Amino acid sequence: MKTILIDPVAQTLTDHEIDGETLSLQQMYEALKCDDVQAINLGTTGPLKIDLWVNGEGMDINETTRYFVLHTDDKPHNLIAGRGLIAASNRSLDSVGLPGHVTAARMEPCIKFVPESQSGAAADLAEQLLDLTTVVGSQEEMDALMVKSAAILKQAMMLCEVPA
After folding, report:
1. Are 65 and 82 a contacting pair, CB within 8 Å?
2. Does 142 have pLDDT greater than 80?
3. 3-state secondary structure of 117
4. What is the DSSP letter of 97?
5. Second label for 66, Cα 20 to 30 Å away, from 47, 83, 101, 138?
């Protein structure tokens, strides 16, 4: 089945074939080189939901971790530590192969890699994002957290522009 592997060390997105009709947790662990996974919903195409699977053990934040930023139209949405695996899920919530029109080349404009020289700065920003994960009581508090998060993610995007 077709998936897309995002490797921030090699700074590549590649169409990635995995054996079988559904994606097992073990296959995700192997592709992502971790022991726990978490999905980020990227949207839908027809009856399928498109997910970005990432290390679910929280961000493995340190100065040697490599990062990438998920964005649309240069608006950042997530700062991701480590590898990512894009797959689809069906109505039964099984992870399945991507439809033919979802390719690494098509997803490439939505991914920016943080250069290795900026990994320490990215780790600092990731820590700031994790510090924002708090329970909010009001819409005003939620709005304030969203503004802070957007500012941090904008800084992460700027790291991607620094020459390697």
Report:
1. yes
2. yes
3. helix
4. P
5. 101
Distance CA 68, CA 30 (A): 19
pLDDT band at 131 (very low <50, low <70, confident <90, very high): confident
Any residues with CB less than 8 A from the CB of 92 and at least 6 apart, and which?
none
If phi over 0 gives left and psi between -120 and 50 gives alpha, with beta otherwise, what is residue 52? beta
Which backbone phi and psi does 138 adopt, to 5 degrees?
Answer: -135, 165
User: Do residues 88 and 96 lie in contact, with contact meaning Cβ atoms separated by under 8 Å?
Assistant: yes
Helix 119-131 and helix 139-160: axis angle, to 10°? 170
pTM for the full model?
Answer: 0.88
Instruction: Enter the DSSP assignment of 10.
Output: T
Instruction: State how far the Cα of 75 lies from the Cα of 78, in Å rounded to an integer.
Output: 10
* pLDDT (0 to 100) of residue 59: 58
Question: CA 147 to CA 2: how far, in whole Å?
Answer: 36
